[in-house]
């Protein structure tokens, strides 16, 4: 079980809490903070295990301004992401790339897919903000692979 997320390149140091999906199938997102909190999809794999571990967080909020994943889109290939686990192990990942996807075309298979390699997906909102609906139109997804 992940408990702490560190991304030195964008100065993220956050507690990680388990989250699930709503009845509508949308992933829950932890409070925008402060303090900085990210949510691990607890029905998927734990970071460092084979398959795609998914961690979500807010980009910002009206009440608190920038949130835990405000600078997620600034990550570059090779940047390191560390996730401390409850078993005292630390899973380290290297960023492979960052993508922006309209929420209407979310890359479900790329984010939640399975496989033999431990991978990490960080997800937040981004793109244009729709004032009427009070929501971002896109999702920003960071793709990362475990490193020794």
Top keywords for this entry?
globular, 148 residues, mainly beta, two-stranded antiparallel ribbon, Sortase, Chain: A, 10 strands, 8-stranded mixed barrel
Write a brief caption for the model:
The protein has one helix at residues 108-112; strands at 2-7, 12-19, 37-41, 51-56, 60-61, 65-66, 80-85, 90-102, 118-130, 135-146. The chain is mainly β and 148 residues long.
Q: What can you see in these coordinates?
A:
The protein is mostly beta strands. The protein has one domain (2-146): Sortase (Sortase, Chain: A, Beta Barrel). Helices cover 3% and strands 49% of the residues. The chain is built from 1 helix and 10 strands. It has one helix at 108-112, and strands at residues 2-7, 12-19, 37-41, 51-56, 60-61, 65-66, 80-85, 90-102, 118-130, 135-146. The strands form 2 sheets. It has an 8-stranded mixed beta barrel with strand order 1-2-3-4-9-10-8-7. Strands 5-6 form a two-stranded antiparallel ribbon. The two termini are 19 Å apart. The model has no long low-confidence stretch (mean pLDDT 94).
């Amino acid at each position: 079980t992940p408990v702490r997320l560190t991304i030195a390149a964008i100065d993220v140091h956050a507690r990680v809490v388990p989250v699930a999906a709503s009845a509508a199938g949308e992933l829950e997102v932890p409070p925008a903070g402060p303090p900085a909190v990210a949510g691990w999809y607890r029905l998927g794999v734990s970071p460092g295990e084979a398959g795609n571990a998914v961690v979500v967080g807010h980009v910002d909020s009206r009440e608190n301004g920038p949130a835990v994943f405000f600078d997620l889109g600034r990550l570059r290939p090779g940047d390191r992401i560390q996730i401390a686990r409850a078993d005292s192990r630390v899973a380290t990942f290297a960023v492979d790339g960052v993508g922006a996807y309209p929420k209407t075309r979310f890359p479900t298979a790329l984010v939640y897919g399975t496989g033999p390699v431990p991978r990490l997906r960080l997800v937040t909102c981004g793109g244009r903000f729709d004032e009427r609906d009070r929501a971002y139109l896109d999702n920003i997804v960071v793709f990362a692979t475990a490193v020794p």
